[in-house]
Every structure is written in structure tokens, then in C-alpha cells.
Amino acid sequence: MDRRYLMKRLGLFFLPIVASIIFLFIFGGLLPDEMNAIFAFLLIGYFMSPLGREVLIPITVISLIQLHGTAFMVEDITRIVACIVFVDVMCSIFLLWNLDILKHVPRLGRWISGMEDYGRRKLRKSRRKRMSFFLALTIYMASPFYGSHGIASTIIGMLSGMRKARVWLAIWIGSLTGGLSIAIIAFTVGQRFLIDIFDNSAWKAISVMVGVGIFIVLIGSYWMHRKAKVQA
């Protein structure tokens, strides 16, 4: 393996991790000590648990209101949104830089490359389609669906053939819009209201069906394209 390629690959793999560690040190250092546990729960929960921002943000707001009321609402919303966007954006950039590794896996790699090429050719033909895909991904990323986070949205964007820069921009806009709207609603309308709506089996089932449906459409479209190509 070429040494320069190896160094580049290692850099693309570890740079998001190093940047994340630096952010966490700076963010933790700026936080008041009594808030460290609250925001550690938000960050770890959003990154590792199946719970989404539609549930974790209201839970975080409850803890902050119990701590110091709503006197620092603007600062609290800023901190919450910063955590959500940070996790989404760093997960996205890690995948955008490193998902190519999966292309070396037999069969799976051919499917990933084939889906990307197929989607890229379709989008290249129409500016309207490019804008539609971008808006759709941004809306999905901003929505309170169970699983609509930086990882799933990035994979959807890449498999649909979108350029990496546009995928990342959609993640930025969607994460910022979604996190900000939920945080504002949680502080003004009520946290229990959001938890009751989104933390139930019916909403989770709908969300999973939407996510699975998107992947089925993408994979099914490419499979039909391959089948038609073989028969031609």
C-alpha cells in the first residue's frame, strides 16, 4: 500500500476524532461545574443511545429548569443546539471521509459504488432533482423522526448520489433547524408535551418505517436499474 495513501487515510480517520476531543475539552471547560453531568448525558445519549434529540432535548431542558429555572434560557438553548449540531456534523464528516473503506468489501463495495454512480448520473441530468434531493435530505434531518440523525442522513445522502459538500451542508442546516426548534418548543410550550408525543411506540414505529422506506426506495431503484441493464 502506498505510504502517502496510508497517511491520508489515517488522517481522515483520526482527524474528526481529535477535533471532537478538542471540542469536548473546550466545551466542558466553559461549562459551569453543575452543568457538566447534564450535558455529558446529552452528548453521550445522542451519540450512543437509541433516543433522538426529540426526547433528549426535553429531558435536558427539564434538568436545566430544575437547576436554575428559565433565567438563562438563551444560553441554555445555545449550549443544547451546539451539542446536537456537534454530534451530527462530526458523525457526518467521519462517514463522508471514511465510508469509502466499505468499498473494499467484496460485493458490498460494488453495491455502494454502483448506487452512488447511479444516483450521481441521475442528479447530474437535472438541477431541479439536485435541489429536490437536497431539500428532502435537509427536511428529513431536521424532522423529529426516530433515527433522523447525522449518521443515517449522511448514508442516505451519499447513496442517493449527492456530492459530499451538499450532504454536509444539509446535515448542518437540518441539525441546526431541528435542534433549535425542539429546544425552543421545550422551553416555551413544555417538555412533557414533547416527550409524550415522541417517546412512545407508535411514533417510533412510524419513524422506523419512514427510515426503512427511504432505504428500500434507494436500493430498490438501483436494483431495478441493474436488472434492466442486464436484460438489455
Would you mind describing this structure in some detail?
There is one protein chain. Helix content is 82%, strand content 0%. The protein has 232 residues and is mainly α. The protein has one domain. Helix 3 (53-68) runs antiparallel to helix 9 (191-198) and helix 4 crosses helix 7 (150-159). The longest helix is centred in the C-terminal third of the chain and has 31 residues, at 201-231. The radius of gyration is 20 Å and the shape is globular.
Overall average pLDDT: 89
Largest sheet: none
The coarse silhouette is: globular
Question: Secondary-structure element order, as H and E?
Answer: HHHHHHHHHH
Topology:
Elements: H1 3-30, H2 36-48, H3 53-68, H4 73-98, H5 108-124, H6 127-142, H7 150-159, H8 164-188, H9 191-198, H10 201-231
Helix pairs in contact: 1-4, 2-3, 2-4, 3-8, 3-9, 4-7, 4-8, 5-10, 6-7, 6-8, 7-8, 8-9
Outline:
This protein has helices spanning 3-30, 36-48, 53-68, 73-98, 108-124, 127-142, 150-159, 164-188, 191-198, 201-231. The protein has 232 residues and is mainly α.
